[in-house]
Amino acid sequence: MNQPPKDTAAEKEGLHPRNRHRGRYDFPALLRTAPELAKFVAPNEHGDDSIDFASPEAVKALNKALLKHFYGIQNWDIPAGYLAPPIPGRADYIHYLADLLAEMNDGVVPTGKRVRVLDVGTGANCIYPIIGHREYGWRFVGSDVDPVAVRVAKQIAASNPGLAGTVECRLQATSTDIFSGIVRGSELFDLTMCNPPFHASEAEAEAATRRKSQNLGTTGSSAAGPNFGGQSHELWYEGGEATFTWRMANESLMQRHNCLWFSTLISKKETLPGLYKTLQKLGAVDVRTIGMSQGQKVSRIVAWTFQDAEQQQQWRQRRWAASQPGGHPAKGAAAAPAIEPAAE
Question: Domains of the chain by range and CATH?
Answer without folding.
Answer: 9-341 (3.40.50.150)
